[in-house]
Design a protein that fits this description.
With about 375 residues, this protein is an alpha/beta fold. It has two domains: about 120 residues, Alpha-Beta Complex (Aspartate Aminotransferase, domain 1), CATH 3.90.1150.10; about 220 residues, Aspartate Aminotransferase, domain 2, CATH 3.40.640.10. Helices cover about 40% and strands about 15% of the residues. The protein has a seven-stranded mixed sheet, with helices on both faces. Helix 8 links the parallel strand 6 and strand 7. Helix 3 packs parallel to helix 10. The relative contact order is 0.17.
Length: about 375
Amino acid sequence: MALFRSALDGLVPYEPGKPEDEVQRELGLDRVVKLASNEGPWGPFPEALEALQRSAESLNRYPDGGAYHLRHALAERHGVIPEQIVTAAGADAVIGHLCVAALDPADEVVTGWPSFISYVLDPLKLGAVPQRVPLRNYHLDLDAMLAAIGPRTKLVFIATPNNPTGTMTSRAELDTYFERVPDHVLTVLDQAYFEYIDHPDYPDGVAEYVQAGRRVLVLRTFSKIYGLAGLRVGYAVGPREAVEAILKVRRAFDVSTQAQVAALASLDAAAGLERRRRLTAEGRRTLERTLRENGLEPAGPAVANFLFAEVGEDARGVFEALLRQGAIVRPMTAFGAPGGLRITVGTAEENAFFAEALSSVRAASA
């Protein structure tokens, strides 16, 4: 009898990228710029740093397992009750907990593809079946996703903006989807990049769907524009039954004390958010020009803090050539796009560094 579950047989362990200093040492580079993981290029807000410093003396104690103060602040911010909010070690952790809570072997989930890899990997770990629906012009095809729903479908994952393509799903498209989606399905509306987007057709999933009583779980995170990726804190807002199910499988002390206090302190940094949103949009436009000047067309219109571009049948060669120049980007094979690269928007100086590296790589290949 095998010790480990057969659902794991076809999976491979996550292979983390090497630390930047190790890449720099191995390749003998003067500098390395990481534009691979969609982090914000700016650190925590000053309010968060102050909260972290204040909390340091109490790190001998376990964190608040219910994230009481953070959950209540988020509930007030979103106009829901605290029982509709669950926190976890990043929005990615919420996806994993939800899959454990909801999926039995042979159950199905539906996702666009390419899209965020956890929508496929987490169900596969449990013996569930992900139905991958091809994108249409780099956008989620909600009509085709609805058509893929069957009697064993429990979850539908909608990332807006979609990762890795950076394209959004409009309010009108989502309104039509929610009118048609069967009652037995829970929709996961992943808005991890919500704060970057200033577009009249982009909906607030909590205000417009959760509060309207739709069967939807909306994901948000502090890992991106808030600059807290290293602390791992995200959350979900949705039906009480979904939150309660996640709480049954989530670890008791899932979110550290420092993650909780930093997230709570970051909630009122509205002016800082606006500045980062503006600088990100400027940087995104700069990277779009850089790609086009080098013969690459970015998917779009992109609305978050990253771009996606097809670079050939196998993007690994371009990735490695950029790496030798000191620019770390993300090849998208695991996300279902073997010819694609995803590039995160950095600071103006980091974007310029990438532009020089890409120009050098493209010139060498020509």
